[in-house]
Each structure stands twice: as structure tokens, then as C-alpha cells.
Amino acid sequence: MNTNTEFRLTDQMERELMLEAMNAPEPSSLPVLLKSSALSLLRGCDRLLAFVGNLNDAMERAYSHNTRFASSQR
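Below the sequence we write its predicted C-alpha cells.
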């Protein structure tokens, strides 16, 4: 039992956590868990690469716009 005085659960919070834990589906098997973990990791990597690609495109557009603006000022 946690005796840390800075972290105490109310009765309602404890009941909700217990009910969530009891109603959570049991992990079916290790291969299924590994597959879902791998898919989640791949989705995360895909989203990260898409973000980096969008960021790169935005930076290129901003640079070309800045270059056109700066050349017209000369």
C-alpha cells in the first residue's frame, strides 16, 4: 500500500480505477500484443514522417516566398 501522503486516491477514484481494471479485456496472447504494438509504432513513425514532410514543404514555400520578396526590393 502506498503511504505517500502526497498521493492519495479518493474512494470514487479508487472504485473507478478498480472497475476499469476489472472490465479491461484480458490480453489474448503475446503475438497479438506484439502485433498491435508494432502497428502502433509504425503508425506513429508514419505520422512523424508526414509531419516532417509537411514542415519541410512549408519551409521551402516560405524560403521561396522570402527570396521573391527580397529580390523585388533591390
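The two ends are 73 Å apart (CA to CA).
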